[in-house]
Amino acid sequence: MTSPASPDTDVPWFEPPLSWLRAKHGVKWARYGSEMLPAWVADMDFPVAPVIRQALADQLERGDVTYPDWQFGPHPLAEPFAARMSARFGWQPDPHEVRGIADLISGLQILLGLTTEPGDGVVLQDPNYPPFRNTVPAMGRAPIRLPLTFQDGHWRHDFDRLENLADAKVLLLVNPHNPTGAALEREELLRLAEFADRHDLLVICDEIHADLVHDPNQHVPFAGLSPEIASRTVTLTSATKAFNIAGLRAAVAHLGSAAVRRRWDSQPPEMHGVMNVMGVEATRVAWEQGDDWLAGVRAHLLQQRGRLAAAVAEMPGVSLRLPDATYLAWLDCSGAELGEDAGQFFRRVAKVRMSPGPDFGGGPEMVRCNFATSTEVLDLITTQIRKALIGSGSVIRR
């Protein structure tokens, strides 16, 4: 099966040729030039799902790209969001509690502005998504790091340390987690929920990778744990990650807290920005009609994850814990004698651009590798990494 990228060019859905990728104008492929293989920013290298492409073509044909009419009424994504959460995860959110946002970063900024004051503590996992790590201190809030470590085959929070963080006002979670790819288990989430309840914390949960959990793992919505937990939780999500439409700028916030809803709705709508009308239509169609395409994506990502793991096993001094979710691998290069930041080393020697560990709060030995690409490109990436390690005289520390 193929997915046309243009009226006269057929591009295989998940095996686009390198020449097609090199011609793209997005940041992933354009930023660092043709000499660098990109495996950094969290975009996938696949053509847009046919149902989304057709829906956007139809909208343009109608000329339906003027000011939207949802500012003072129910948001057009409220019902599709609620239906999707119910069908895929068994959580039944109230559509009336859904608000539209341009993206998760602006959603977090709005929420911190509404619910905290400068100097208030915000607990966030460490390592973490760089824009979240940067937003908290940039807004004058005090970041409180909660380490996430790998124990007994699972990623776990340091709950002993958590008990010393009671002065915080907000618990900011990313689940599935970026950059580790952890899909947090129900028991882990319940312990976090109990802590939040005991210390009266607002929980803001980024669940943008929920549709990209690899079998047999499962995504558990934090607000779906119980009605009581939902009443102190804001869920931020979007179709942009799973359906590869980040440039269309559309996301939702489910405001489970009545107090947060009152504060949100008391603000002029202009304070929250306006979603892209094309993004809203793309999101609606993705959630309502895009699951066949998504199933193909998930199958390809599972194959690529295994391919990457096999390649890493042949890399001296590099290790990988298979991600439960996402298309992002958190590579540990601590066993290699690189002599410099791993991300910098691979850019300089392998000509592969991955995301450096320190950007996430990790050590210089860590890098995040995006494997949502073609088999051809992934093989080029892993081959160049391995050659760089061998050529540098990398050894395994005992």
TrEMBL record:
<dbReference type="Pfam" id="PF00155">
    <property type="entry name" value="Aminotran_1_2"/>
</dbReference>
<keyword id="KW-0456">Lyase</keyword>
<comment type="similarity">
    <text>Belongs to the class-II pyridoxal-phosphate-dependent aminotransferase family. MalY/PatB cystathionine beta-lyase subfamily.</text>
</comment>
<dbReference type="GO" id="GO:0030170">
    <property type="term" value="F:pyridoxal phosphate binding"/>
</dbReference>
<dbReference type="InterPro" id="IPR051798">
    <property type="entry name" value="Class-II_PLP-Dep_Aminotrans"/>
</dbReference>
<feature type="domain" description="Aminotransferase class I/classII large">
    <location>
        <begin position="46"/>
        <end position="377"/>
    </location>
</feature>
<dbReference type="InterPro" id="IPR015424">
    <property type="entry name" value="PyrdxlP-dep_Trfase"/>
</dbReference>
<dbReference type="InterPro" id="IPR004839">
    <property type="entry name" value="Aminotransferase_I/II_large"/>
</dbReference>
<keyword id="KW-0032">Aminotransferase</keyword>
<dbReference type="GO" id="GO:0008483">
    <property type="term" value="F:transaminase activity"/>
</dbReference>
<comment type="similarity">
    <text>Belongs to the class-I pyridoxal-phosphate-dependent aminotransferase family.</text>
</comment>
<keyword id="KW-0663">Pyridoxal phosphate</keyword>
<dbReference type="InterPro" id="IPR004838">
    <property type="entry name" value="NHTrfase_class1_PyrdxlP-BS"/>
</dbReference>
<dbReference type="InterPro" id="IPR015421">
    <property type="entry name" value="PyrdxlP-dep_Trfase_major"/>
</dbReference>
<keyword id="KW-0808">Transferase</keyword>
<protein>
    <recommendedName>
        <fullName>Aminotransferase</fullName>
        <ecNumber>2.6.1.-</ecNumber>
    </recommendedName>
</protein>
<dbReference type="GO" id="GO:0016829">
    <property type="term" value="F:lyase activity"/>
</dbReference>
<dbReference type="InterPro" id="IPR015422">
    <property type="entry name" value="PyrdxlP-dep_Trfase_small"/>
</dbReference>
